[in-house]
Every structure is written in structure tokens, then in C-alpha cells.
């Protein structure tokens, strides 16, 4: 399996929350190349890939959606106002090219703001908000309507043999990891019933994963997401890219299974990092672990630089090692 190609292809696809169908279709095509699997898309739009078994039900989750923007108002001429969903800092949007998804196809806009030469001193000191930004759509602006969605138009590429950069690696890096885990499982005799859930709408409220978890009702859920890598945060251990998967610990994580997967990582020599979380992880974990009567849940994260920007960065080794850990853990029944 060509992990880099899959990751770059997934990054280049547009799939903002609620509109993930292109991403889902691509993952479905890749999953169907892997033996011993079936798949279906549920009513919410989640892709569920299943390996039949008679033992414990284990479900792995990775959200497919990405942050995005919505056109909120038309100004004079070809200028539009817009806002974000998924949490984007206005400062990183300035001068970016956005791809607008209209009913008549793609239009492109450039994000602008009042030039510094024309700003008052009060404006220079004020914290920037989306009210200060506008989108300049020169060509096909007549096709743009209120409610149209937009995404970053950045293209993924390899920084070197280890690192890939592009948009939406939160959480397409985890989607790639799940596909690779599914591929590696064919090296083992797997008795358990295993579900790989490529869920929708995490960035706007985690509705996709929670409905899938309710439907599957697994004995163990494992959520894959990304976390902040290569940055110093006071009060937290430094998480580094290239140093292996991150095992999250906190009130939302089942401590028994946390110890088990940590022991498995040590047994098969997978380097891992531990990241503490408070009462919320701000991932699908928070909803899944309180689904039905409660589902034992693990959260495993992939270190990522520059989250929610046009060019996020991941280390391919972290994807490979996370998949190696997960495939062995699943093959042993999560024990």
C-alpha cells in the first residue's frame, strides 16, 4: 500500500463537514482493494468497513471531514463576506486562495482585508476577526450564493522522504492510518468482528461517529485523531512528530484498555508518547464513550504541526507505527 499517495490524494479532496462524499467515495474504493472486507454507507453518510468475526466487536473511528468556510453575505461587486466552521484563526486566512463550491461548479476567491496603509491606529491594535476580512471573487462571482461552502485550495506535497504537508491532514492522516491498519490485518488470523468507521461531521459536533457507535454498539471503540506536535505547551509534555503514536489518557479513556495497548506497544517495540487530557478531548471520543450504556473507548493521536491551517504537516513514520500497533492489538483481541 502506497501510504504517501493515499495521504496526498485524501488531502487534495475537498470534504468540509456535511459534504464529505468525495472523501468517502475515495476511501471506499481503496478499502475494496483489501481482501476480507465488506462496506456500506449509513444514513448519516459514514462509511463503515467490516471484517467478519465471531469474537469481540471492536470499532475504530476516524473522521473524514475538514474545516471550511461558508459564504454569508454579498457585498458590492465581486466581494463577499464569509465565516468559518471548525475553528480557524482569521490571521492565517489572509491572502489565501479559497475554492468555492457553487451549484454551477468551482469558483476561486482570494481573501483580503484593508491594507495597513489605510488602517487607523485603532484598527491596527484591534484583534482581527472575520468581520475584517472579505473574499474577492473575480471570475464566476455571479455563480456564488449565500450558503456556498469554501475550502483551502492548497495542494499536498512531500517536504522530504519523511514528511507530507497539505490541508485536511486533520484528520485524513488518521483515515490513511485506518486503511493501512485494515491492510496489515491480513497478516494475522483475526477472530474478532472489526469495524472501521470513516465518520462525518466531527468538526461541527461529532454527530457522525456517535450515531455509528450507537448502531454498532462495540465492546471496544478506538478513536484516531491528531494532536499538536513539535510545539511547547506549558503544563503538558512535548509531543514530537516522528516519535510514534500518542496514547491519550484522561477521564474519557478506559484505563484498563489504556494499560493493555501501552503494554502491547512495549511488547512489539512501538515507540509511543502519552498525552494527558482533561474532562474533554474535543474529539469523537467524548461522545462515543457515553453512547448507549457507555462504551469503553481509547483515543490514539497522530502528532501534527500547524493544525487547522492550509499546510498541516505529518511524519509518515507515525502513520506506519500507529497502524502496526493497532493491527497487532486488534489481532490479539485488544488483550
Automatic annotation (TrEMBL):
Binds 2 divalent metal cations per subunit. Pfam families: Peptidase_M42 (PF05343). The active site is at residue 202. Its cofactor is a divalent metal cation. Zn(2+) 2 binds at residues 170, 203, 308. Keywords: Aminopeptidase, Hydrolase, Metal-binding, Protease. The keyword Protease applies. Transmembrane segments: none annotated. InterPro entries: Peptidase_M42 (IPR008007), Peptidase_M42_aminopept (IPR051464), Peptidase_M42_dom2 (IPR023367). Belongs to the peptidase M42 family. This is M42 family peptidase. It comes from Dictyoglomus thermophilum. The lineage of its organism: Bacteria, Pseudomonadati, Dictyoglomota, Dictyoglomia, Dictyoglomales.
Amino acid at each position: 500500500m502506497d501510504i504517501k499517495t493515499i495521504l496526498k490524494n485524501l488531502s487534495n479532496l475537498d470534504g468540509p463537514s456535511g459534504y464529505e462524499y468525495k472523501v468517502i467515495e475515495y476511501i471506499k474504493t481503496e478499502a475494496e482493494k483489501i481482501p476480507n472486507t465488506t462496506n456500506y454507507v449509513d444514513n448519516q453518510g459514514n462509511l463503515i468497513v467490516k471484517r467478519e468475526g465471531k469474537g469481540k466487536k471492536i470499532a475504530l473511528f476516524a473522521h473524514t471531514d475538514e474545516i471550511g468556510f461558508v459564504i454569508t453575505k454579498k457585498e458590492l461587486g465581486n466581494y463577499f463576506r464569509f465565516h468559518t466552521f471548525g475553528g480557524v484563526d482569521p490571521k492565517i486566512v489572509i491572502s489565501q486562495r479559497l475554492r468555492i463550491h457553487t451549484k454551477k461548479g468551482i469558483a476561486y476567491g482570494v481573501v483580503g482585508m484593508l491594507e495597513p496603509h489605510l488602517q487607523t491606529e485603532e484598527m491596527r491594535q484591534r484583534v482581527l476577526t472575520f468581520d475584517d476580512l472579505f473574499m474577492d471573487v473575480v471570475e464566476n462571482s455571479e455563480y456564488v450564493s449565500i450558503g456556498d461552502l469554501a475550502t483551502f485550495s492548497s495542494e499536498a506535497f512531500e517536504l522530504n522522504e519523511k514528511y507530507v504537508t497539505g490541508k485536511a491532514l486533520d484528520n485524513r492522516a488518521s483515515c490513511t492510518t485506518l486503511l493501512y491498519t485494515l491492510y496489515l490485518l491480513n497478516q494475522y488470523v483475526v477472530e474478532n468482528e472489526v469495524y472501521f468507521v470513516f465518520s462525518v461531521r466531527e468538526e461541527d459536533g461529532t454527530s457522525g461517529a456517535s450515531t455509528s457507535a450507537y448502531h454498532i454498539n462495540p465492546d471496544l471503540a478506538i478513536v484516531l485523531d491528531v494532536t499538536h506536535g513539535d510545539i511547547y505547551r506549558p503544563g503538558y509534555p512535548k509531543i514530537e512528530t516522528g516519535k510514534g503514536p500518542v496514547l491519550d489518557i484522561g477521564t474519557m479513556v478506559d484505563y484498563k484498555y489504556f494499560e493493555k495497548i501501552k503494554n502491547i506497544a512495549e511488547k512489539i517495540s512501538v515507540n509511543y508518547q502519552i498525552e494527558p487530557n482533561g474532562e474533554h478531548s474535543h474529539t469523537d471520543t467524548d461522545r462515543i464513550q457515553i453512547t448507549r450504556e457507555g462504551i469503553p473507548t481509547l483515543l490514539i493521536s497522530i502528532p501534527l504541526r500547524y493544525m487547522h491551517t492550509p499546510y498541516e504537516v505529518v511524519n509518515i513514520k507515525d502513520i506506519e507505527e500507529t497502524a502496526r500497533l493497532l493491527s497487532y492489538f486488534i489481532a490479539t483481541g485488544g488483550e
